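Support case: fe (ii) ion complex. Customer-provided input:
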Amino acid sequence: MEGKKTLWKPAYLLEIDEIDDQHKRFFELCMEQSQLCERARKGEAITIRHIIRAMFALRNYAFYHFHTEEALLVKYRFPDVYGHIRLHDTFLRKLMEFSDELEGYVGVQDTEANALFLVLSDRLLGLCG
Ligand SMILES: [Fe+2]
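Agent response - structure generated as follows:
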């Protein structure tokens, strides 16, 4: 991901402005987290707290985006609405597992992000596609 500004691709365009804009923002948040991890790996003083904040920005945005998207899927009677909602639920379940793991770092969040923590962060980014 080094050097890239976003993971979003034109192939993701749905021609629904509200959803397209939210997808772009979601991928920007993934990239912001990824860039923090890269900076930590290069030796910059990035604390666990910095990365946790980025992870929660991603988590909050996922809730917000799925709420918007599901409302539209129901409103316009998308053919596989439950299949799509199941995909969201799977993603959210994984996010909640991360939240549980992050709780273990509360006491050390002012320390610099170590390799073990960066692996956890990479796993979350792996969910972003
Ligand atoms: Fe979406």
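The mean pLDDT is 89.

Case will auto-close in a few days if no follow-up is received.
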